[in-house]
Amino acid sequence: MGLMIVLSMVIYIIGIIIVYHYIPAFTQDKKVKFIIMGIIVAIIVTMIICNITTGKIKGGYQEDIIKGTKNTSILIFSPINFIILIPYIANALNKFKENIIEEGELKKRFFIIFIILILLIIFELGYISEFQGKILNIGL
Q1: Which residue of 54, 79, 115, 135 sits 20 to 30 Å from the alpha carbon of 64, by its own alpha carbon?
Q2: What pTM, to 2 d.p., does this model score?
Q3: Are 19 and 35 in contact (CB under 8 A)?
Q4: What range defines the domain where residue 45 resides?
Q5: What pLDDT score does 139 carry?
Q6: How far apart are CA 108 and CA 106, in angstroms?
Q7: For the chain, what is the mean pLDDT?
Q8: What is the rounded CA–CA span in Å between residue 10 and residue 51?
């Protein structure tokens, strides 16, 4: 579990660096707030997905083992979700703030990001479910 925590932190740090550089038009405090909000959103989305997939686990596993697979999934997939979505949102907002794109283009980009989020959730519902099943089979 310690290795997964370190790996998760490394992926988050990479994502934070990417996002930080995508929003130069933001003030320092707004950059920090945006990054924190992005991390929270990524964790919440991943927790929802993991709660759905954990609810489908059958086979009489102990509650602590199921909780461990859920926590492992959240540790691994939250930073990945952060890196997939938040830099694109940051880039779009920054371009809007610098008047490079107009509001209509910003809405179009957010709509595309929303579609990507929906596709990501559908993909992860299957993938995380399979991932958790494999963890249970090898005996976390």
Answers
A1: 79
A2: 0.86
A3: yes
A4: 2-138
A5: 60
A6: 5
A7: 91
A8: 24
